[in-house]
Design a protein that fits this description.
By secondary structure, the chain is an alpha/beta fold. The protein is about 30% helix and about 20% strand. It has a 7-stranded mixed β-sheet. A 7-stranded mixed β-sheet has the order 4-5-3-6-7-8-11, with helices on both faces. The longest helix is centred in the first third of the chain and has 20 residues. The N and C termini lie far apart (about 50 Å).
Length: about 450
Amino acid sequence: MKKILSTFFLTCLLFSCASKNSYPLDKFEERMNYQKPVVFYSNPVLLEKTDTENYYYDKESLSFNDKTLYVGQDDVMIASQLAEMVFNYIDANSETINRKTKEEDDGILKYILIADDNSTVASKLKVKAIRKRFDTLISNDGKENLEVEDNGSTKTGSLTTNDGKKFTMIEAGSFDMKNKKYEASTVTSSLINQIEKSTSPLDLVICFSDVDGRSIYNGFDSTKNSIPVFGVGGDSFSLKTIGNKNTGRLPYAGTVYINQSYLAYMRFRCLVNLIDNREDFYSYGITKEDSKGSVLKYPQLIRYDNENRQLLLSGQILNTDNIASIVPDYDNFDDKNNFEDGIKEIDNSSAIWVSRVKRGDGSLSGELNNFDDCQYNFEKVYFSKLKIKAQDGYNEFETDPVTGKKIYEKSESDFLKKFINLNDYQGYLINLYDSLNAPLYLSSLKQ
């Protein structure tokens, strides 16, 4: 009997010790590489890059395991916000926006589109949103026209403001900054010439990034009449220019502000939550408070798409009227760290593999550097206890055929070459430059 009791107590003691000191099989210490968390960012994980209705998500890659997801911008929402921002401006300035005198007002508004890279779904969504709002989307053959070409052709539509004023909308041209290898200065010169020579001058310029908007806006400084310029991104330049009413010309008309520090935090935080095996990985410390009280100030901007495994951030429309209420200290705005909420440092000390664009090179400017600097800043400040192996990429160059200057040829190859020693990490944060390349990373994790 004593032997049986001794065996019983020994068994209970061993079980008690095991329950206190061991981890369930799905904790990160016990995971195989194909079981570890994978967070993609930069571009959505797609099978095709051209569809604007269904996106053709690569659901096989996004369901690689139950800890795989994409964290990034809500491109559908941002596209609609861009169209809404431009309409609201026209609606609020319907009596003065036409660049002819009131006596000569012909009811025609001419605009142009400046796309950053129209091979992406995000760019095509913006084209679609603007042309749909201005009734210039459907071509003569009855199909949607999402192409961006500087071919001199015009598209004609219409718009009615909330007070009933009707405008004929003419898209006088569009530029694809990447595929045509345009420099913003070249486009600006062309536009200024068009403004000065045209008998019916441009009334609006709509840019798909604040990087291009900056050059266009500054280029108009030498013209007699400034033109409303709209952008997307919300870097420090655009915010400060929107708020500046004392330049003797129109402020930057508006931007869809995409909070880069939110994106940086969301990516790292999701990965940490997944490593910690949290079921609420998409909300803990993001849209709901964690144990230290960390939570983002604008949780309404964030949505989790469970079906497609995506955590998405929408933008905020910023203009002269509302910028001070959303970014109170915009005169001293710092893209790298724009938190007012007191996000606390994360305790997790796991080792993670991170890819990011190469820092500190003059060839990258504006949004890209802000985006990357935010990530770098967060590695150092909020996630300093993580053991981060960061891989810089995009080191290959090509020559711009227009200017002869060397420009970045962004390539996934650098990251893929460095996606090695995977056993050393508990999770992976992957900058997906090409939306179709997710399977290349995942195949390495299967081995």
